[in-house]
């Protein structure tokens, strides 16, 4: 069966590539994927899917399609994200973005194409499948505050679903290599901000002011002691200050400073302790330097934690499908993904599919203005998603 799945996917490789190029040329940002949604719906209808659900969070973006909806067997969901990034493409492929200031620079065009390919493969064998498959084309992954995954979950996309799987194109892995990791796979992503209120004055007489820039600068350094001196060295934690803004000119001490950043970790228990640790340090420095501070912390996305048994089985399927040499265990990344919201609720796996290929020039990292992928990996992704679904049913029966 695996060889059959692989062959069907490969037979559709030109169509899958054409889909990727079409979506790459017509990118749309989070919760504005209107044309993207129409195109996905159109292709699914041509395959024979009926009763498609369109729209998420009151916006006509995102598509959900069910295969074998009347069957009573188990149900697995396959997920792809569909939004692009607000950035200008600088590369010049034939399928270059037609929308100024918007680009598929993270591989979501590939994700759409691979999931459409999987839908095509599995639709061709629907009568042989003893259960249901839900195809989730999710909007707004790139906007964590307005997560499409969170919206879809709140609207019931996981009702009746027993497991979920997804693939992410990964620029640092060689083309065609599948990367997996049971357990924590991608980090949480939280945001924080702080306003330091001081007392402005002339730069020539700093003793008459309460300098918020000096206080903020001390905070940036001191916050790093959370990781270096308060957290177990074997835990992976990042506390980053990424934006500082204060003052208007060279000789005026301002009356306030603003800073913001992100916190990443794989450990939910550690994650829960970070806000208090940060606030304690910030308040202590504010008091010591005669300033006041306002600190806000927002939990945004949880870590993406792969179910151990499901992931190890999916890796076995990948080896059987693609060969042992093309599947490897990878280290987790501190990048974040709202796929973790699904995996908080049901077992499943999220895996990487490499696309780095020097011969084809697909060497730039995600979010690079000349980012592109090796199209030859796309049918492999469609085949792998299909094979994971088929294996899920085989094990359930």
In short:
It contains 10 helices and 16 strands. By secondary structure, the protein is an alpha/beta fold.
Largest sheet: 8 strands, mixed
Helical element count? 10
| Distance between the ends | 16 Å
Secondary-structure content class = alpha/beta
CATH class value of the largest domain:
Alpha Beta
SSE ordering: HHHEEEHEHEEEEEHEEEHEEHEHEH
Query: What CATH architecture label of the largest domain applies?
Result: 3-Layer(aba) Sandwich
Instruction: Indicate the radius of gyration in whole angstroms.
Output: 24 Å
- The residue-averaged pLDDT reads 97
The shape is elongated
Helical content, roughly?
25-40%
Tell me the domain tally.
2
**CATH fold-type name of the largest domain:** Aminopeptidase
Strand content: 25-35%
- Spans of at least 5 consecutive residues whose pLDDT stays below 50 are none
Strand ordering within the main sheet: 1-2-4-3-5-16-6-15
CATH superfamily of the largest domain: Zn peptidases
Describe it.
There is one protein chain. The chain is an alpha/beta fold and 397 residues long. It has two domains: 2-185 and 303-396, Aminopeptidase, CATH 3.40.630.10; 189-301, Alpha-Beta Plaits, CATH 3.30.70.360. The mean pLDDT is 97. It is 35% helix and 26% strand. Strands 1-2-4-3-5-16-6-15 form an eight-stranded mixed β-sheet. A four-stranded antiparallel β-sheet has the order 10-12-8-13, with helices on one face.
């Amino acid at each position: 069966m695996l060889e059959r799945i692989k062959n069907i996917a490969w037979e559709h490789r030109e169509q899958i590539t054409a889909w990727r190029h079409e979506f790459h040329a017509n990118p749309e940002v989070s919760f504005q994927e209107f044309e993207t949604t129409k195109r996905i719906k159109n292709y699914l209808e041509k395959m024979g899917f009926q009763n498609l659900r369109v729209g998420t969070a009151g916006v006509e973006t995102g598509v959900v399609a069910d295969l074998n909806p009347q069957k009573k067997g188990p149900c697995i969901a396959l997920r792809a994200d569909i939004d692009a990034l607000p950035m200008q493409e600088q590369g010049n492929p034939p399928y270059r973005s037609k929308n100024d200031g918007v680009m598929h620079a993270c591989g979501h065009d590939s994700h759409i194409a691979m999931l459409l390919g999987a839908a095509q493969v599995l639709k061709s064998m629907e009568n042989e499948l003893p259960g249901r498959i839900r195809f989730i084309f999710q909007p707004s992954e790139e906007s964590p505050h307005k997560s499409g995954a969170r919206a879809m979950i709140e609207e019931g996309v996981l009702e009746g679903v027993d497991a979920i799987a997804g693939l992410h194109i990964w620029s640092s892995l060689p083309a065609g290599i599948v990367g997996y990791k049971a357990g924590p796979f991608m980090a949480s992503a939280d945001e924080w901000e702080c306003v330091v209120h001081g007392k402005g004055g002339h730069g020539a007489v700093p003793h008459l002011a309460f300098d918020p820039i000096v206080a903020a600068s001390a905070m940036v350094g001191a916050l790093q002691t959370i990781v270096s001196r308060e957290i177990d060295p074997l835990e992976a934690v990042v506390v980053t200050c990424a934006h500082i803004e204060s003052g208007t000119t060279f000789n005026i001490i301002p009356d306030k400073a603003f800073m913001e950043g992100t916190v990443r970790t794989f450990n939910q228990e550690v994650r829960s302790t970070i806000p208090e640790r940060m606030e304690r340090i910030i308040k202590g420095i504010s008091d010591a330097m005669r300033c006041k501070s306002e600190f806000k912390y927002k939990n945004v996305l949880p870590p993406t934690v792969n179910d151990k048994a499901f992931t190890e089985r999916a890796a076995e399927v990948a080896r059987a499908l693609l060969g042992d040499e093309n599947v490897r265990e990878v280290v987790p990344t501190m990048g974040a993904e709202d796929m973790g919201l699904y995996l908080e609720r049901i077992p499943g796996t999220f895996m990487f599919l490499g696309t780095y290929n020097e011969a084809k020039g697909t060497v730039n990292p995600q979010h690079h203005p000349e980012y592109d992928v090796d199209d030859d990996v796309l049918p492999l992704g469609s085949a792998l998603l299909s094979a994971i679904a088929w294996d899920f049913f085989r094990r359930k029966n």
